[in-house]
Write the C-alpha cells for this entry.
Amino acid sequence: MSSDYLNATSVLSRPLICWFASHGCTGSCQKLLTAKVNPDVRELSFEAGNPTALLLAARGGHSDCIEVLLDGGADLLLTDDFGVTAMHEAAGSPYSDDSTQAAVLSKLLQHPSAHALLHKGDANKHSPVALAASRGFTACIKLLLDAYDPCMRQQLASRALPNATEAGYTEAAKLLINAGATSMPSSDTSSALEVCLITPACQEPVELL
C-alpha cells in the first residue's frame, strides 16, 4: 500500500488507524504502524475532542491495541481538547465494563510515562480514580490506588469519594475510605441513596446521604 493511502481517512472521514483502534482491530493497527503511519494522528471531531488513536482504544477497552500503539510510538501524555488522557478514558469509559477497563489500565500503568498521568485532572478537574469511582469500577480503583504515591493517595481518594457515594456505588466508596478518604458528600446532594460504610479508623458505621 502507498503511504498516501495508509495516512488517508476512511469512508467515515476518520484516519484509518483511529477507526481500527476504536474497533479493536489490533492486526490492522500493527500493519499501519509497520508502514510508518503516525500513531498520534487525531480524529478530527470537535464534539469528541479530537482524540488520538490511543484514546479511542482506551475508551473502547481494547488492551491489545493499547499495547501495539504504545510499542509503535504513541505518546501516552497526549490529551484531547478536553484534557482527557488515555488514563481517564480507561478509568471511566461508559462503553465497557470494569474488568475490561482494568486490563487497559494495567497496560497503561506499565508505561514509563504513566506516573505523570495518575494525578492529572481533565477539563472538569476529574482524576482517573474519580472517574472510576463515578462508574463504580472497583478493579480500576484498586489499580489506581495501588499506583498512587502514599502522600497523594488519601487526597485523591477523598476527592473521588463523592463520585462513588452520589452514584450509589457502595463497594467503590468502601475502597476509597479504606484508602484514607475523609471527605463526605454534602447532605443536600441530589441522590437520596443512603450508603452505610465502615471506616477503618473507628469501625463505626458512617451514614452517607
